[in-house]
Recover the amino acids of this structure.
């Protein structure tokens, strides 16, 4: 049985992980950490800071599952990896310097780490299918939609999709620039040669749409996560992977061997 600590325990994703772990016979929730936990709710299993966890309790943990933010990811990596705790994170918004540092920690302490901007199998397949389609089209747009409380834009998944699809196309995509932009940013933001458009709306969890265009036709791939439970099989699969392989990976596609 793999014993889990959730960082970002009180968040919606953290609570979804709690349900998934408690519903499985192969995992056990040992503790939760969240900087937003009120003092009155702190207990023997819920802590405000990672450093507040007693050594005896920490010795029970096998893997940290992180759904906080870029700062939370950096902090938990610096504290957990040197204690040889595996790390699976869905936090986004971190920069290349942070990723490089976490990779160094993983290699130095021989600890498995998986950084995945999206844990949905469908989202990973969208990326994979888009990479195949990119060989046949020169024009593309990417639209991502998330709930109104998501703090970063575009989504980490959208940036990852743009990079993967752009990397799979030798000569790059044709970028269409409007001669007159009446409103700044109307054409989206350019990432890896692909225009990304970000929507933030209540009622949305996570949605990504790839739109390829050619004379006389449009090809679209849409993935829509309507419930956070869609991410949980990928999260648990990532935990099993880092426990077994003890290496550093970025992206669920590496774990699914696509």
């Amino acid at each position: 049985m793999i014993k889990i600590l959730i960082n970002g325990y009180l968040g919606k994703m953290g609570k979804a992980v709690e349900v998934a772990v408690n519903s499985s016979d192969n995992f056990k929730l040992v503790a939760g950490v969240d900087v937003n936990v009120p003092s009155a709710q702190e207990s023997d299993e819920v802590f405000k800071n990672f450093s507040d966890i007693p050594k005896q309790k920490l010795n029970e943990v096998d893997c940290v599952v992180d759904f906080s933010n870029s700062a939370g990811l950096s902090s938990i990596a610096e504290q957990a990896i040197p204690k040889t705790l595996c790390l699976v994170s869905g936090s986004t918004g971190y920069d290349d310097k942070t990723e490089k540092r976490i990779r160094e920690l993983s290699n130095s302490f021989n600890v498995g780490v998986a950084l995945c901007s999206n844990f949905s199998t469908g989202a990973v397949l969208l990326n994979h299918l888009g990479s195949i389609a990119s060989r046949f089209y020169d024009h593309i747009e990417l639209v991502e939609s998330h709930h109104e409380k998501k703090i970063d834009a575009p989504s980490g998944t959208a940036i990852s999709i743009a990079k993967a699809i752009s990397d799979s196309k030798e000569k790059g995509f044709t970028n269409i620039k409007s001669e007159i932009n009446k409103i700044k940013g109307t054409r989206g933001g350019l990432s890896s040669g692909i225009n990304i458009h970000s929507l933030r709306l209540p009622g949305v969890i996570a949605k990504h749409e790839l739109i390829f265009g050619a004379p006389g036709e449009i090809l679209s791939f849409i993935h829509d996560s309507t419930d956070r439970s869609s991410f949980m099989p990928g999260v648990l699969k990532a935990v099993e992977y880092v426990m077994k392989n003890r290496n550093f990976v970025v992206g669920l596609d590496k774990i699914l061997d696509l």
The chain has a mean pLDDT of 92. The chain is about 35% helix and 25% strand.
